[in-house]
Design a protein that fits this description.
This protein is about 30% helix and about 30% strand. It is of the alpha+beta class and about 190 residues long.
Amino acid sequence: MDKPSLPAVPLEAALLVVCPEADPVVGRHRSFLDSAAQVGVPAHITVAYPFKPVIDAYDIANLEALFLRIPAFTTTFAETDWFGSDVLFLRPLDSEPLSVVYQAVSDAFPDWPIFGGVYDSYVPHLTVGHNQPVALLREAEADVTGHLPVIQPITAVDLWSGPALASGTGQWRKVRSFPLGGALAQHAQHISVR
């Protein structure tokens, strides 16, 4: 007799600006305050989530060309902020370059609005914790604030994928990285200086 098959957990995807410079400051807190960290997603700023869970060669070419038109930049996180009392995050000092990245993706993929189009505007942020007791989030905020600013070069947007976050199962992984304009030249110059 055949075993009954378990229902497949749907896949999700996201376009993320990964922020490794923030990990020493927020990583310990994210590991227990942010569900994305618990499925392997590093410190990041979301550009598009949910995004197309399956992308084809046309989508890849479109994303490559789109991101190469946007210059690489640096962002600085100098303060924390909140969405209500539910979400503690780092706010970039200058949100304009991140808004440009978001708008380019939004224009190119209108069927995949950030957070399903629930919010009226895009607020670039790096989540430290969410949906946790306020006292825990306040403790994290006090610790994080003492280690700011964080300066993060932004040279790429990454495509990440994994089981639906709401399922609470499985790990997410980076599928591919899309360099921003000038990022390859900056990387080559950095190597030649060493």
